[in-house]
From TrEMBL:
Residues 3-71 form the HTH gntR-type domain. This is Trehalose operon repressor. It comes from Scopulibacillus cellulosilyticus. It comes from the Bacteria. InterPro entries: Bact_HTH_transcr_reg (IPR050679), Chorismate_lyase_/UTRA_dom_sf (IPR028978), TreR (IPR012770), Tscrpt_reg_HTH_GntR (IPR000524), UTRA (IPR011663), WH-like_DNA-bd_sf (IPR036388), WH_DNA-bd_sf (IPR036390). CDD domains: WHTH_GntR. Keywords: DNA-binding, Transcription, Transcription regulation. The gene is treR. Pfam families: GntR, UTRA.
Amino acid sequence: MSENKFLAIYNDLADNIQKGNYKTGELLPSEHDLADRYKSSRETIRKALNFLSQNGYIQKVRGKGSIVLDVGKYVFPVSGLISFKELATSTGKPWKTNAHELVLIKPDDYIQQQLNLKKNDEVWKSVRSREIDGEKIILDIDYIKKQFVPTITKDICEDSLYNYFENDLHLVISFAKKEITVEEATPEDKTYLNLKGLSHVVVVKNYVYLEDASLLQYTESRHRLDKFRFVDFARRERR
């Protein structure tokens, strides 16, 4: 079975569900019909459907089929390392990043601790709101070590920091550690996000490392909690 074939079918079905071509509560076509449509084996279709189920797109019901679930929330891949630009582009909806602040600062005690800095080290602080389909639903507060990133502009912040780091500065981003909490919305959240009366946000604290394990960036990514599904994929190892 081709791994690429399974993923292609999964991505196509997920895309059709997100676009509303398959409505919430409807049944997907049967495994037999999907195998004919995609010219693949039923085993490949079954694997794609299982992955759709694991990621919250469908509920498989014995004797009935695959029921489409409400996917009005954007999928945030917990275990992945993806930029907002990559995430937003995959939705097919209009998106925009608004750079509200970009300053070079001396870190306070908290940021020194998060980035393993000394008091006189300098960091870039960037504050950006992220907009999808006309709604500001993410507030990113980034702290980036100046020793790795000598200069940044607001234009870069409104495009993609990862693209700039990797393609212009030739930094090799290797891995990230993430911590997810639900916190009370701050005045900054209320200023820059369309919270629509919500009192809390989902905060993803992200520590980004280079290939030599140097810590490059600490980000607090503050999400409107009604707009995201935080998805991970785990495989149990035999012991």
